[in-house]
Model the fold of this input.
Amino acid sequence: MNDGTPESGHESRSAELLEDYLHGPGVSLRRFASVPDRESLVVRLEGSDPKAPSLLLLAHTDVVPANPDGWTRDPFAAELVDGIVWGRGAVDMLNLTASMAVALKRLVMSEFRPRGTLVYAAVADEEAAGVHGVEWLVEHEREAIATDYVITECGGARLPFGRGAPRLPIMVAEKGGAGLHIRVGGSPAHASMPFGSDNAVVKAAEVVHRLAIHRTPARIHEVWRRFVDGAGLSWPTRRVLTSARLIDRALPTLAPGVARFVHACTHTTVAPTVLRGGVKINVIADTAEVQIDIRTLPGESREDVHRMLAKAIGDLWSECEIVREIDRPATVSSVETPLYDVIAEVSAKLVPQARLVPYIFPAATDARFLRPLGVVGYGFGLMSERIPFDRFFSMFHGNDEHVDVESLRLSTELWEQVARRFLA
Ligand SMILES: [Zn+2]
Done:
């Protein structure tokens, strides 16, 4: 369980278990750790043709904490009841970590000798920005996870709307992260005489308020357009959802969960999330800090973000000192690739007539570290009809996370068949 501290996670236990399970003829297994007890396992099935494209199945082994008070079952007992496995990580993403391992095991047992290399990485620390996982591997052991293509989490659950054939969203792009910690200063004084004082807490509150009421403009990215066009919606709905001019007016008419998703996919979002300041009730605050979560659309730079903040915060922007800043641009992969076609073919076989619908993920996965290296990255997996897209995402980091055995079976089949077709 990864609570964000370096001492948590304990992913080595999973790395060890998976290593025991996966060792076999022709398989190379290596464990890497940036700090003790936080190992990532990398398994390679070397291809016979160095020029053939390689594929990385990228899974994380950590999960976020769970408060048992909100659960009907023990979040860490992995109970299997009526074809459903209950527990933290059931959809984020131990379902895929496990099904990828089972598929790889089957391939190894069948003496599958691919032309292109197959890599399976069960990595630490995805839930705390990948610092001890993929970010570290890319920095220090890049060769170990070198690949042309990667598949990781966040796709494959059916869209709960649209008529006709099942539509399976596949994540092909992720928004960027441009979060900021800013500090505002003031002058300490006795709080009994506040008139005309320079109070950092008051200024920080005003900064937060201005950010909260600021409206970033809508922007329709190519991937969003493809998503809307492929989602099986009516023509008027498609028109509204792909118009930067109309979309903002439509947002209040949508169901809250849908509106949140639509807004996030079409806007750079700004969410002040942490506010700290002052030292004592009777002292005018001389410092306060605001942390702002910012997610950018593809094509937006750090300079664009600063310009947007300056506009939103107005005259107080000059008093804001940036003390920490994340600068990770959005990443996008093409849908015109041989892997995309293979995933589409195999999915349509396993889920009759299913069609892929590409989408942009408003948050982040480990694929974001690889796309900038020229790797094509998708988020996928197959879910049964018991777990549609909205249900799927509502369980991420939520209570009563669960997955049905049928989804595990479908995903296992998917990985095995995709590997056989794509790497053959
Ligand atoms: Zn995850």
Summary: The radius of gyration is 23 Å. The longest strand covers residues 287-296. Residues 60, 92-93, 126, 153 surround zinc ion (CB under 6 Å). The mean pLDDT is 97.
